Amino acid sequence: MSDLISSEARPTRAFVIHPEIRSAAGSRRLPEHALAEAMSLALALPGLEVVGGEVVRLPKPHAGHLFGTGKLAELKERLDAEEIDLVLVDGPVTPVQQRNLEKEWGVKLLDRTGLILEIFADRARTREGVLQVELAALSYQRTRLVRAWTHLERQRGGLGFVGGPGETQIEADRRAIDEQMVRLRRQLAKVVKTRELHRAARRKVPFPIVALVGYTNAGKSTLFNRMTGAAVMAKDMLFATLDPTMRGITLPSGRKVIMSDTVGFISDLPHELVAAFRATLEEVLEADLILHVRDISHPETEEQAADVGDILESLGVDEDVSLIEVWNKIDALGPATREALLVQDARRADVQAVSALTGEGLEALLAAIEARLGEERLDETLSLPFSAGRARAWLHEQNVVRAERQTKTGWDFDVNWTETQRQRFRAL
Asked: Are 296 and 333 in contact (CB under 8 A)?
C-alpha cells in the first residue's frame, strides 16, 4: 500500500486516452461517450486532477507501445506541456506496453482495470468488500510483475498502482502474492460463510427480497434511500457506493419486503472484480424480484442496459426471475421526451418511469412491486426418492417446505410455493 498524499502536495495531474481500435469488433458505444465515461471514472478517484482527454483512433494496436511512433511523439509533447503525472488508458494495456509507455513518456500509467480497482479500493468499507478488492488487486498485479518505471516517487492512498517504486525480485514477489492470495481466500471464505448464514436466516423469515441492480450512477442508491429512508451515500459519481446494503420496507398493503442495494455495473467490468464480488452479487441470485434501474436520460441508456444484462447472465441469473425496469431520472428529460416516455411506460407492465430525486412515479412502482410479489401460492404434496438429495436441498433453500415425512423409499413433502418456483423445481 502506498502512503497517502499530504494535504500540501498538489493533486496528481491525469490525462485520459480512449484508444479506438478500428480493426476490433464493433463497440456498443460511441468513442466520445466512452471517453466521457472514462473521465468520469478518473474524477471518482480522490487526489486526481483530470487535465484533459483524447480519443486516439488506431488501425491496430502496436505490440510494444500500443500507439504508433508518430502518435507517441505527439502525445509526449502534450503530456510534457501540461505537466501530466498519470496517463489513464481506457482499455486493456499489456504489462510490456505499460512499461514501455511509462519509459517513453516519463509518467505513470493505468489501464481501465487498474483505475476501477483503485476506485474500488478507495470505496470499500466492509470487511468483505476490502478483502474482495485486495484479492482482485493481487490477481491483477500478479500479471504485471515487470520492472516498473520509478521516476515518480510521490505516492497516494489506494492499491499503490498510481505511485511508488517498482520491485526487482519478480519471482519472490510472485510467490509472496500467491501466498497472500491464499490467505485472503481463506479469510474471505469465512466472511462468505457468515453471509450465507445470514442469508439462510432470512429465508426462514417469509419476507421477499427485492434487489436493485443497474449501471453505475443510474440512481440506485438515491432510489434505495427514497424507498427505505436509509442514508446510503448517493452522489452524481461513478461507483459512489460499493458495499451491499439491505433494509426492510412496508408496501402500501402492509406487506413487508427486504430491499437490497448492490454495487453498480459498468461496461468491461474487470473479470477479476466479477469473480471477487461474486459472493456479494449473489444477493441478486437470491432475489424474488429484480429492479433494473436505468438512467433513462443518458444518451446510451440502451447500451448500458445491454451491459447490465450481460453481467446478470454471467452471474447465472435465470431468465424466469421476475424483473421490472425502472426508468429513472425522468426529471432530467425535456417536456416532449418525458411525455412520450410516460405514454410508452403506460403500455408496458414491466416498466416503471420514476424520478428518485423528486419521488415522482414511486407510488406506481410500489404498486407494481406489490403485484409482482403477489403471485398466487399453491399447496402441493411431493414425493422424492432418497437419490434426489439435490432437489430436497433446493426445496429447503427456497423455504417452501411446510412439512416433511420420511418413507421407505424417500421423502414426502407438503410445500407452499408459487408457479415460478414450481417451474424452477421441475427444471432441476
From this structure: yes
Residue 191 · residue 185 · CB < 8 Å: no
Cell numbers standing for residue 171 = 519471482
Q: What is the pTM assigned to this prediction?
A: 0.69
Q: Which residues pair with 291 in a beta bridge?
A: 212, 324
Residue 267 makes CB contacts below 8 A (sequence gap 6+) with 28, 29, 37, 303, 304, 307
Of 189, 211, 318, the closest CA to residue 265 belongs to: 211
Query: Cα(234)–Cα(223) distance, rounded to whole angstroms?
Result: 9
User: How deeply is 137 buried, as exposed, middle or buried, from its count of CB atoms within 10 A (0-12, 13-18, 19+)?
Assistant: buried
Q: What is the pLDDT of residues 73-106, one digit of tens each?
A: 999 999 999 999 999 999 889 889 999 999 999 9
Give me the half-sphere count of Cα atoms (radius 13 Å) on the Cβ side of residue 293: 28
Residues 6+ apart with CB under 8 A from 180: 138
Q: How far is CA 29 from CA 89, 296, 350, in A?
A: 16, 16, 25
- Distance (Å) of CA 174 to CA 91, 138, 149, 161, 250: 24, 10, 18, 16, 51
Pairwise CA distance, residues 87 & 165, whole Å? 17
Of 309, 307, 315, the C-alpha closest to 283 is: 315
247-255's contacts with Cβ under 8 Å and 24+ in sequence apart are 248/207, 251/366, 251/369, 251/370, 251/373, 252/363, 252/366, 252/367, 252/370, 253/370, 255/370, 255/373
Beta-bridge partners for 57: 20
Give 195-201's long-range contacts (Cβ < 8 A, gap of 24+): 195/128, 195/279, 199/286
**Separation CA 293–CA 302 (nearest Å):** 12
Percentage of the residues of the chain whose pLDDT score is greater than 90: 24
Say if CB 213 and CB 293 are below 8 A apart. yes
Which DSSP helix (H) or strand (E) runs through 401? Answer: strand 401-406
How far from chain centre, in Å, is Cα 143?
22
The string of pLDDT tens digits covering residues 337-367 is: 877 777 766 556 688 999 999 999 899 999 8
Ranges assigned E (strand) in 262-370: 289-295, 322-328, 351-353
**Any long-range contacts for 389-394 (C-beta under 8 Å, 24+ apart)?**
390/428, 391/425, 391/428, 394/425, 394/428
Three cell numbers written together for 273: 472484480
